[in-house]
């Protein structure tokens, strides 16, 4: 019997079921990647000013409004709770561009009332009702949980309250509105989350694959490495380890979204990765990092992380090339997409956004031969040894021009790359 005759002999209900499965599989396979960006509600005060009408919505699938959090009585707190006019303008502009707007709940330093509210049935019910009403009134497309625990170990009661809040939100939200969460990428905080509840309730899980280093670290390291550099002290965690860890716990690849930092850290008292520093590491926007005078640029071809250095500083950050490599990795592994913290941090004085443009070109346009010259699949790096503040010249297929926000052919200017250590 041929496949065609087998299909023709099946009952009509079975035919419909088989067709539905096929269409569902096609939908999953052809689903567009997520490119989501967190918009800070203080964006209008940035330099340059970044009000909602400056956001290039067509380059995102989702934009998060950051933030709304609970008051102790379950009411809503935040700039957009007091005056939603800017959020309403964002929704209008985003929807005109075919982009969804998500309300982000919490944020680091704004979560002090979550445990009290989520842990009390009456307060939780009030908070959920307020959120759902707010999402409906302001035509939002979903909610994003960013309840960041304030202490480790996390009390079991907080984990239970988090789970109850997610389940109540999912039940109360209209089905067409998404529910997602910003989550820790490593087991250090991640072990306090219940994976089965996350997978059951969330449309996607956004792993904060950044802040992997900082002034709390014992050495100056890379902030968002794609791969571990196991032969050195350059990395303690990575994107690859994040994916492997959460997949083993039961998170499917098509629900994993990875965080791309549009910021970095400048460590003082050292000028190389994996070395001790004087305890000071300054958080800096990408646009600020490019203004540092006298720095040279380098690349670790094991972790796929760029960095900059002077005689007395080491700066870990992303470039258009490194985020393009990350975007290519997402596509090749069929992960759900990428999220950005935050989208105001690469805005230049002329309102160009080089990091965003690179992610958009690879992840959404899926253009490996885009105008910036990024070629993820064919990127080849010749390595040059970096010793202290000096380095040899390297000749990659494309050379990142940090100040010109693009790529130049070989020989156009110097760029410094680090020799891989294995």
Blueprint (SSEs and pairs):
Blueprint: H1 3-9, H2 12-29, E1 34-40, E2 62-70, E3 76-77, H3 79-82, H4 85-96, E4 100-106, H5 114-118, H6 121-137, E5 142-146, H7 156-172, E6 178-184, H8 187-190, H9 195-201, E7 204-208, H10 239-248, E8 256-261, E9 263-268, E10 281-285, H11 286-289, E11 296-300, E12 305-309, E13 313-316, H12 320-332, E14 337-341, H13 354-364, E15 386-387, E16 390-391, E17 399-401, E18 406-408
Parallel strand pairs: 1-2, 1-14, 2-4, 4-5, 5-6, 6-7, 7-8, 8-14
Antiparallel strand pairs: 2-3, 9-10, 9-13, 11-12, 12-13, 15-16, 17-18
Helix pairs in contact: 6-7, 12-13
In short:
This protein is of the alpha/beta class and 422 residues long. The chain has 13 helices and 18 strands. Helix 12 packs parallel to helix 13.
């Amino acid at each position: 019997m041929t496949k065609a005759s087998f299909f023709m002999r099946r009952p009509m209900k079975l035919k419909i079921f088989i067709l539905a499965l096929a269409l569902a599989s096609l939908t999953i396979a052809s689903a567009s990647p997520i490119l989501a960006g967190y918009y800070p509600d203080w964006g209008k005060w940035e330099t340059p000013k970044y009000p909602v009408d400056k956001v290039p919505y067509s380059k995102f699938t989702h934009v998060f409004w950051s933030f709304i959090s609970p008051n102790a009585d379950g009411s809503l707190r935040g700039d957009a709770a007091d005056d939603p006019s800017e959020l309403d303008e964002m929704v209008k502009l985003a929807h005109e561009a075919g982009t969804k707007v998500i309300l982000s709940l919490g944020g680091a330093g704004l979560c002090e009332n979550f445990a009290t509210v989520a842990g009390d049935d009456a307060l939780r019910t009030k908070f959920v009702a307020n959120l759902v009403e707010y999402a409906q009134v302001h035509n939002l497309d979903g909610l994003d949980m960013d309840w960041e625990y304030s202490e480790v170990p996390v009390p079991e009661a907080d984990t239970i309250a988090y789970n109850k809040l997610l389940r109540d939100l999912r039940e109360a939200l209209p089905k067409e509105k998404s529910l997602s969460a910003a989550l820790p990428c490593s087991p250090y905080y991640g072990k306090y989350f219940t994976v089965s509840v996350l997978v059951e309730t969330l449309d996607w899980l956004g792993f904060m694959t950044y802040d992997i280093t900082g002034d709390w670290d014992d050495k100056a390291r890379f902030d968002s490495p794609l791969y571990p550099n196991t032969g050195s002290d350059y990395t303690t965690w990575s994107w690859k380890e994040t994916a492997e860890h959460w997949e083993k716990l039961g998170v499917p690849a098509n629900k994993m979204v990875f965080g791309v930092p549009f910021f970095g850290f400048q460590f003082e008292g050292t000028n190389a990765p994996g070395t001790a520093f004087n305890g000071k590491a300054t958080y800096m926007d990408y646009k600020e990092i490019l203004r540092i005078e006298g720095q040279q640029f380098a690349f670790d071809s094991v972790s796929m992380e760029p960095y900059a250095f002077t005689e007395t500083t080491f700066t870990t950050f992303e470039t258009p090339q490194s985020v393009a490599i990350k975007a290519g990795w997402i596509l090749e592994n069929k992960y759900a997409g990428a999220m950005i913290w935050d989208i105001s941090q690469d805005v230049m004085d002329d309102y160009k956004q080089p990091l965003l443009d690179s992610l958009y070109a690879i992840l959404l346009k899926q253009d490996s031969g885009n105008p910036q010259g990024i070629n993820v699949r064919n990127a080849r790096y010749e390595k040059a040894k970096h010793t202290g503040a000096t380095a040899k010249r390297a000749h990659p297929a494309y050379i990142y021009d940090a100040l010109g926000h693009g790529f130049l052919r070989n020989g156009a200017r110097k760029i410094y790359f680090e020799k891989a250590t294995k």
